[in-house]
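Good morning,

Attaching, inline, the backbone tokens for the sequence recovery test we're adding to the shared suite. The designed sequence is right after.
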């Protein structure tokens, strides 16, 4: 009985983690697919924008990762 409860708790935790991961992936996909300029600040304080090739590659990668999110 205790093992079953522990297994159910572990499965619930795994499911919650998967849902959170999928939500982050969907959010990132929506941001990149929208076409807005995406950038980050480097350690030197410079703003660097994502180029189109990198954006497209990341979109393909996100689509692959999102297949496990159904």
């Amino acid at each position: 009985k205790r093992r079953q409860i522990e297994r159910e708790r572990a499965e619930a935790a795994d499911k919650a983690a998967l849902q959170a991961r999928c939500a982050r992936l969907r959010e990132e996909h929506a941001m990149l697919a929208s076409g807005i300029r995406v950038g980050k600040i480097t350690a030197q304080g410079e703003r660097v924008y994502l180029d189109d090739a990198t954006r497209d590659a990341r979109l393909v990668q996100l689509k692959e990762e999102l297949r496990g999110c159904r």
